């Protein structure tokens, strides 16, 4: 059994009287592809936001590779190897696909006020290195031919591949995906899922929010289910489909948090 790479203990977050995440304790195995499921309003999105630093917990802890990273900002978590994609991609529409990917690495010399003036040679060397890596990543996600296209003019499925490319620029150990195949045409969805599986075989750990149980059945092990902000199930996808408590939970009210 692989050691856990991402661990939460009694993680909680409320919005007024609503407990969106209520004492969630998880152990995400290194190298696993964990499916996070649950009805609308279960707390899946809030949990992702807590894990990635978009929200600070009211209580509880998050540990990444044994280190307490509770409440760290998203950029610091990205630098430590935790990346995420969003259900609705938001690229810089007027910039090219390549430029969007090149922006991803943190702490670039050119981002500082003095960089272009005092470290011009270092900045050019870094830019060449980042460009070469970005082109390599774009080729991996099958977007190499669109490198010079404006990001706002590619399809929704290609935007999801672009999001994955941006995350890969950080060489993440853990990637959180929010409904990666939702709204993507079947051909591009197959490509995207294939790349996720390839990265997983290479050792990248994934946690995936997904409503499509067919996707979960075929790709995720284990499956973790939330309802009312709490973990109500953890096990195999086959056991999830046969679990009466979990099936009842899917009759919950809309309005995911």
Task: Report on the architecture of this protein.
This protein is an alpha/beta fold. Helix content is 36%, strand content 24%. A hairpin with a 2-residue loop joins β4 and β5. α5 packs across α6.
- The radius of gyration over CA amounts to 19 Å
In percent terms, what proportion of residues is strand?
Answer: 15-25%
Query: Unreliable stretches, pLDDT < 50, 5 or more residues?
Result: 251-255
Structural class: alpha/beta
Order of helices and strands: EEEHEEHEHHHHEHEHEEHH
Number of helices: 10
Measured as a percent range, the helix fraction is 25-40%
Mean pLDDT: 88
Strand order of the largest sheet: 6-7-8-3-9-10
Largest sheet: 6 strands, mixed
Distance between the termini: 32 Å
Topology, pairings included?
Elements lengths: L3 E12 L2 E12 L3 E5 L6 H8 L7 E6 L2 E2 L5 H6 L2 E3 L12 H6 L12 H4 L1 H21 L15 H13 L5 E5 L7 H16 L3 E5 L3 H7 L3 E5 L2 E6 L1 H5 L2 H6 L8
Parallel strand pairs: 3-8, 3-9, 6-7, 7-8
Antiparallel strand pairs: 1-2, 1-4, 4-5, 9-10
Give a quick precis of the structure.
The protein is of the alpha/beta class. It is built from 10 helices and 10 strands. The radius of gyration is 19 Å and the shape is globular.
List keywords for this structure.
four-stranded antiparallel beta sheet, six-stranded mixed beta sheet, disordered C terminus, 10 helices, 257 residues, alpha/beta
